[in-house]
Amino acid sequence: MKRFTLWAVLTVLSLGLWTLGNVAATTQGWSRTPIAASGDPQAFMAAATKRIQAAYEGNLSMLLIMQGQVFDEFNTSISRAVNRDTRFGVSSLSKWVTAVGVMTLVDAGNIDLDKPASTYLSRWQLPASEFDNAGVTVRRLLSHTAGLTDGLGHDGFESPDGFHAAGYDTNRLCGSRARYRRQCRGVFCC
Which terminus of the chain is more exposed, N or C, with fewer CB under 10 A? Predict the structure, then answer.
């Protein structure tokens, strides 16, 4: 029994130290080398711009904001010119923020996840289609299972004029859509 207790205590301590080490490494960036000294925004912008120009193949508009003001900016494009006013498709980048807000409303009893989303829409309604819009529930919207598309040109499809889709050059980089689906492991990886 003494041996088992010692083994259990050592295991728990080891797991605790391992967890603390991982948390510290993640939050402090111990495995990453900074691209510039802390507090040197000019050096940061120069290093970031250099890395982007060396390896990035896409459209990008980057602003460095300090104390609520634009300190510097960098724009690059492989097609149409972009600047700080260019609209980019962000796909589901903001979905987690929306989900937190929706789940707060669910917890407060203001939204039912399994009711049709149209129950909560006032200024806009889902367009009529051959499908039953009652099946488009809040839960299905949050889990990407409602069957809706925004038509904004993701995965290399054409995008409307004046709008840079996040996946604008996916097909150029990865080949056909079928090849993209099969080989890409991340958003823009081939």
Answer: N
Domain final position from 49, 65, 86: 86
Residue 113 is part of which domain span?
A: 95-183
Q: What letter represents residue 24's amino acid?
A: A
- Long-range pairs of 179-186 with CB within 8 A, sequence gap ≥ 24: 180/155, 180/156
Phi then psi for residue 63, to 5 deg, are -115, 135
Is 140 exposed, middle or buried (CB count within 10 Å of its CB: 0-12, 13-18, 19+)?
A: middle
* 58 belongs to a structural domain: yes
pTM given for the model: 0.44
CB contact set of 81 (below 8 Å; sequence gap of 6+): 75
